[in-house]
Specification:
The protein is of the alpha+beta class. It contains 5 helices and 7 strands; from the N terminus they run βααββαβαβαββ. About 30% of the residues lie in helices and about 30% in strands. This is N-acetyltransferase domain-containing protein.
Length: about 160
């Protein structure tokens, strides 16, 4: 496999339709994110190698309601809605999982968030983990909310320092 390259992609099914990550919850989120990207509400990025999409993700800057455990790590003046770089979806194609791509991609996003925090006014990096990915995000240093959503996912937060 050639060295993967990262690029912004157009949200058309013909480009991502064959993407399978073997987690139905994440695949449903991918579909939602692609629809949002089609309406111009998100940017969809791909990591590709040898002409194939091997991973994809979306990011957005905004303020999200934070769990009290996250707020405890911020200054007392911080509002309940914390400025964050949110990752609505991140997935690695099932044929390329367990090869370190997800970790490399997350390390890239963590470093990007830390570098851009002063420019963007963000305090945290946030995402939602599925039961299958919970341990992975813990290993990267994300704190998790105690609240579990009906689909089994939970909010994950990293305070940017």
């Amino acid at each position: 496999m050639t060295e993967p390259s990262l690029s912004l992609i157009a949200p058309h099914e013909v480009q991502w339709g064959a993407f399978v990550c073997a987690d139905a919850l994440i695949e449903a989120r991918i579909s939602q994110e692609v629809q949002a990207a089609t309406r111009g509400l998100r940017a969809l990025y791909e990591l590709s190698a040898d002409g194939f999409v091997i991973a994809l993700f979306t990011v957005q800057v905004g303020a999200l309601q934070a769990d009290h455990t996250v707020l405890a790590g911020l200054s007392p003046q911080e509002p309940l809605a914390v400025p964050t770089l949110h990752i609505p979806v991140i997935a690695v194609h099932q044929n390329h999982q367990r090869a370190g791509l997800g970790r490399r991609l997350m390390e890239f996003l963590i470093n990007l968030a830390r570098e851009q925090a002063p420019n963007l006014g963000i305090k945290t990096l946030s995402l939602e983990s599925t039961p299958n990915s919970d341990g992975f995000y813990t290993s990267l240093g994300f704190d998790r909310s105690e609240q579990t959503w009906p689909d089994g996912s939970r909010a994950r937060w990293m305070i940017l320092r």
